[in-house]
Amino acid sequence: MINLQNLDFRYRKGKNLFEDLNLQLRSGNIYGLLGKNGAGKTTLLRLINGFLFPTKGTVDVLGFDATDRHPEMLADVCYVQEEPYIPDLSIIAYLYTYAPFYPGFDFDQFFSLITEFGLEGHLKMEKLSFGQKKKVMLSFALASNARIVILDEPTNGLDIPSKSQFRKLITEAMLDDRIVIISTHQVRDMVNLIDPILILEEGKIIFHYSLEEIANALYFEVHHSITEPANVIYSERISGGYLSIRENTDGLHSNVDVEVLFNAILMKKDLITGILEKSKSQIKQS
């Protein structure tokens, strides 16, 4: 549904942010886009949405060239920016102004979502807190029934109960013909939600694997010890000990700690991706 081929991009008079980038995203997945500040996550999202034009290469979205911003494509792409523009309207006025751009918009679902978030349609958007505005925009995106939903730092401004609600609502709204892309620094907010994992570094996708592939290849383990564990790929200090990653040579199952994985990838990308590729090859042969 989304296909980026041989993509180059640079801002005016700047160096290339992306160079010969290739990426395919398929329906039925909630992609987690991770990366350090300045890695190009928001730029990549804006290229997919057609807000920015590549210097070279193509961005195909639902069979359309994203740079054309064809109305039929835009009716199936809903993008919630990290700090979205909020007009001085009531929630219900905002709804009836912008919902017509999405032919499949579900009004009943929208009202159900904002109610679950503790909001009412008569409230003025400008008077809402940042977190409340985010709740309105997230409710709108899910109710749009767009086949591609792009969320840039969606949990910024949400309190802990609202983050839990967000995970629940995203899961319930996921359909086989839908792609959700979540760009975030708040990795722990996305536990058991994002899958596959994409990691962007210096304008390149350096990691693109599913949770199943990661769990097959790597074993995540807590060590209740003051001594750093030996014979592991990566470890980091946590309260009461260490959390480590080692190669999963025993076919055991462990929960993938995406935050620890991200830190490990930044330090030992080649070693970890090599283990993952070896594991994938072995599974194919078995």
Task: Write a structural description.
By secondary structure, the protein is an alpha/beta fold. It has two domains: 2-208, Rossmann fold, CATH 3.40.50.300; 211-285, no CATH class. The protein is built from eight helices and 13 strands. Strand 12 and strand 13 form a beta hairpin. The two termini are 30 Å apart. 33% of the residues are buried.
Please give the structural blueprint.
Layout: E1 2-10, E2 16-25, E3 29-34, H1 41-49, E4 56-61, E5 64-65, H2 71-74, E6 77-80, H3 91-98, H4 107-116, H5 130-143, E7 148-152, H6 160-173, E8 179-183, E9 197-201, E10 204-209, H7 211-217, E11 218-223, E12 234-238, E13 241-247, H8 258-285
